[in-house]
Amino acid sequence: MERKEIRVKDKENAGAKSELTYTGPVFLPAVDILEKDDAVILIADMPGVDSEGVDVHLNEKDLTISGQIKEEKFGNAYIHKEFQTGDYLRTFSLSKAIDGNRIEAIMKNGVLRIVLPKAETIKPRRIEVKAG
Amino acid sequence: MTIFRLRNPFYEQFRDFLEMNRVQDEVNRLYENFFGRRPITQKMNVFPAVNVSEDDDNLYVLAELPGVEPDDVDITAQEDSLILKGVRRIPAEGDDVSYHRREREDGSFNRKVTLPIHIVPQKVEAVTKNGLLKVTLPKADEVKSKKIEIKVQ
To answer: B42 by DSSP, 3-state: which?
Structure first.
């Protein structure tokens, strides 16, 4: 099967969306958000971040994910630079009630996957239609 | 006492113009100082974006490939170039899902990076870690920097 070619995307600066107490670029990770019957799943690309560098924080309905990269020095001078490296930060406002105690997050190959189980009360119910 | 200053309107305009130039120069100078005379990043519009760095013995090519399995990347090194070819797969989530947001992209990539100096293709090594691909390319002997001794006569 022929696959389409991936386009290059510029990293978007998290910029004014949050105030930081340290300097350095902070980017918005690219995310997929999908919904299943029982959970909302959020997948974020954060290359350079390992599981220890990730922080997932749920405050009421605001979900904040942040990732700190492990700065590794390669060589002593850049001769060509196409992308910047920096930490990641993004906040989402969840529209559904989430069961905060059962949130699971996995970091693999620079991709963060968060499973946010829906609270019992808002799971879709199938409503039986009775014949009258 | 009142002081009247005579001003030449032409000179006034010209002075503003000079001031603009000066501001422009100042901004340029700041950028040069901060970023070493180059634009911050250069765009090639081919995925993946790469950074190339060096030390005395090696060139390093760094690319961000989050979610790409090492088995899905083919690296071909020649004396003066490097080809990064591969696929980024995003596994299907099943039939019962609906998407709120879809920013991540899957697909193939095939990127050739022309190297500024010769390297030893047989000794090229690559590792992936946390979604970063790091390729180490040892410099060919003839391009390694040599220390020149100064003889005393």
So the answer is: coil
pTM: 0.75
Amino acid at A34: L
The mean pLDDT value for A50-54 works out to 91
For residue B103, the chain A residues in CB contact (below 8 A) are 30-32
* 0.90 surpassed by complex ipTM: no
Q: Is residue A92 part of a domain?
A: yes
Which residues on chain B are in Cβ contact (under 8 Å) with A74?
53, 60, 62, 134
Same domain, B19 and B85: no
Q: What is the CATH number of the domain that holds B134?
A: 2.60.40.790
Instruction: Give the CATH number for residue A36.
Output: 2.60.40.790
Max Cα-Cα span within chain A: 80
Closest CA to A60 of A88, A98, A24, A22: A98
**Beta strands A111-117; A39-45: pairing state:** antiparallel
SS3 call for B101: strand
Residue-wise pLDDT for A57-107, tens only, equals: 888 788 999 999 987 778 888 888 888 888 999 999 887 788 888 889 999
Put simply, the answer to whether A83 touches B38 (Cβ < 8 Å) is no
- The verdict on B85 and B120 lying in the same domain is yes
Kindly state the percentage of chain B with pLDDT values over 70: 75
Q: Give how far A101 is from chain B: nearest CA, Å.
A: 23
Please give the tally of structural domains in chain A. 1
Cβ distance of B105 and A7 shorter than 8 Å: yes
